[in-house]
């Protein structure tokens, strides 16, 4: 385990750290509660061993602060065991009420300390497995099963949060709406399985274009989502007008360059997409207005011949 050991007595810390190192654990030392909070952020320990009486900040206050940090992180919890020279009932009750999980004497016999650490190591392993499972569930809940892009539910939640932050900061914000041209004809002609393959390929092209833009720092927070059916969306907070236009045109070009045969898309012979975009210099008001404007531009792109981007720089 990674263990954060908090004690102001250097001699006691050195002895305890040596014992824990001998058991195979990695130990990080902190000399008081305030330092412990900073080390907790940096070290991300599996277990905290916390002295009670310390200068600057005592163990109970430090534990309260750590629990407050964990409260804003989904599923975060780190076992905290208090170290004391006197494991009285009163100390145990106070320790638990302060957010601790156990109380042990500093002079605990070697075999007992080793057994306690084995138990905590099992807890740490279970926490890691649970965290991995929760991350997997979160990924499944946020991804579109067919294309691998963000799904509509996740897109709505994330976009609302980004919009609120952009409004607070007065940042720019853009939306791109993308629709595969004549996709119903594609499905009717090639079949729904081929249609699914087409959606996956085009989603991959969109995702790659957005990723390249993010890597170039032009649109560092942009993300793509499947909006519904054959329609996709790209959300771009904090974007410059030139970067917004470049990304939009790159997406249209990337889809065309997939060269997916589409006989019923008569003008081109391959799958193409129309794109509508809307951008505001300062986020303000209702987000739905920006989506509506992007959708209007999408219809304009279709009216003007498809396989093109029609962009607006204001959500009027």
Task: Give a short synopsis of this structure.
This protein is 52% helix and 18% strand. With 316 residues, the protein is an alpha/beta fold.
General description of the model:
The protein has about 325 residues and is an alpha/beta fold. About 50% of the residues lie in helices and about 20% in strands. It contains 10 helices and 10 strands. The strands form 2 sheets. Strands 2-1-3-4-5 form a 5-stranded parallel sheet, sandwiched between helices. A 5-stranded mixed sheet has the order 7-8-6-9-10, sandwiched between helices. Helix 7 (about 185-190) crosses helix 8 and helix 8 runs antiparallel to helix 9. The termini are far apart. The model has no long low-confidence stretch (mean pLDDT about 90).
Main attributes?
single chain, 316 residues, alpha/beta, Rossmann fold, Alpha-Beta Plaits, 2 domains, five-stranded parallel beta sheet, five-stranded mixed beta sheet, 10 helices, elongated
CATH homologous superfamily of the largest domain?
A: Reverse transcriptase/Diguanylate cyclase domain
Give the CATH topology of the largest domain: Alpha-Beta Plaits
The unreliable regions are none
How many domains? The number is: 2
Q: Can you tell me the CATH class of the largest domain?
A: Alpha Beta
């Amino acid at each position: 385990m990674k263990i954060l050991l908090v004690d102001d007595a250097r001699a006691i810390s050195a002895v305890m750290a040596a014992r824990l190192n001998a058991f195979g654990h990695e130990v990080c030392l902190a000399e008081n509660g305030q330092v412990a909070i900073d080390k907790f952020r940096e070290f991300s320990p599996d277990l905290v061993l916390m002295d009670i009486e310390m200068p600057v900040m005592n163990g109970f206050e430090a534990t309260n602060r750590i629990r407050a940090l964990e409260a804003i992180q989904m599923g975060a919890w780190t076992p905290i065991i208090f170290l004391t020279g006197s494991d009285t009932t009163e100390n145990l009750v106070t320790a638990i009420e302060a957010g601790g999980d156990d109380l042990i004497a500093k002079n605990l016999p070697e075999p007992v300390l080793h057994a306690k650490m084995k138990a905590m190591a099992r807890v740490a392993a279970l926490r890691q497995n649970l965290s991995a499972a929760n991350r997997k569930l979160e990924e499944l809940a946020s991804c579109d099963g067919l294309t691998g892009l963000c799904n509509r539910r996740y897109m709505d939640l994330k976009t609302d949060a980004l919009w609120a932050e952009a409004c607070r900061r007065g940042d720019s914000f853009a939306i791109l709406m993308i629709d595969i041209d004549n996709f119903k004809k594609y499905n009717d002609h090639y079949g729904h399985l081929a249609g699914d393959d087409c959606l996956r390929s085009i989603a991959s092209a969109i995702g790659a274009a957005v990723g390249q833009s993010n890597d170039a720092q032009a649109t560092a927070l942009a993300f793509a989502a499947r909006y519904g059916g054959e329609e996709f969306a790209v959300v771009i907070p904090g974007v410059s007008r030139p970067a917004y236009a470049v990304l939009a045109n790159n997406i249209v070009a990337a889809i065309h360059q997939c060269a997916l045969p589409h006989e019923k898309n008569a003008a081109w012979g391959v799958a193409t997409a129309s794109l509508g975009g809307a951008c505001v210099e300062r986020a303000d008001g209702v987000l739905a207005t920006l989506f509506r404007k992007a959708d209007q531009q999408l219809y304009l792109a279709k009216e003007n011949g498809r396989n093109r981007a029609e962009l607006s720089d204001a959500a009027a």
